[in-house]
Amino acid sequence: MKKPIRLYFICIENRCRSQIAEAYAKQLGKDHVIVESAGLKESEIHPYTVEVMKEVGINISSAVSKRIDMKVFIQSNIIVKLCQQTNEKCPVVPFGVQSVQWNIPDPLQGEEDSLDNVRASRDVIKSKVMELLRNLDVPLYE
């Protein structure tokens, strides 16, 4: 087996989108990937995030929100920024590290904060993670 690919998913608070992306990448890529997620600031994992992942059989109830760790950032093969705000405020991606931009709106932002919005984001993120892993020739374990 070739060396695992290091993925780092970044969003603003690491409470929803990046946590979902991390969970799916770990589940789908197994030991072909080393996956972490972080935010520009840390927060609490939103209960909706835990709930929508439980609906698809993934338990992230012990997940913890984290701030960007520059050591992990620099050692990553691919940094995935999940929204435009992270693209604008994220540290500069080092030479040799691939930067991927997904513009997924925060489903927990504003008055539209709903379980259905988080479910919709979860499903978009899953398809994007699957596409990313396929493009990297990572076998998918569904």
Description of the molecule:
It is an enzyme of class 1 (oxidoreductase). This is Arsenate reductase ArsC. Keywords: Oxidoreductase. The chain has 142 residues and is of the alpha/beta class. The protein has a single domain, classed as Rossmann fold (3-Layer(aba) Sandwich), CATH 3.40.50. 39% of the residues lie in helices and 15% in strands. The protein is built from five helices and four strands, in the order E-H-E-H-H-E-H-E-H. A four-stranded parallel beta sheet has the order 2-1-3-4. Helix 4 links the parallel strand 3 and strand 4. The mean pLDDT is 93.
* CATH class identity: Alpha Beta
Helix content: 25-40%
CATH topology: Rossmann fold
Describe the strand arrangement of the main beta sheet, using strand numbers.
2-1-3-4
Question: What do the pLDDT scores average to?
Answer: 93
Which stretches are low in confidence, meaning pLDDT under 50 for 5 or more residues running? none
Looking at CATH, the homologous superfamily is: Response regulator
CATH architectural label: 3-Layer(aba) Sandwich
Indicate the overall shape. globular
For the record, the count of structural domains works out to 1
Quickly count the helices: 5
Number of strands: 4
Task: Give, in order, the helices and strands.
Answer: EHEHHEHEH
Task: Work out the strand percent.
Answer: 15-25%
Which structural class matches the secondary elements?
alpha/beta
Keywords: Oxidoreductase
Protein name: Arsenate reductase ArsC
Enzyme class: oxidoreductase
EC number: 1.20.4.4
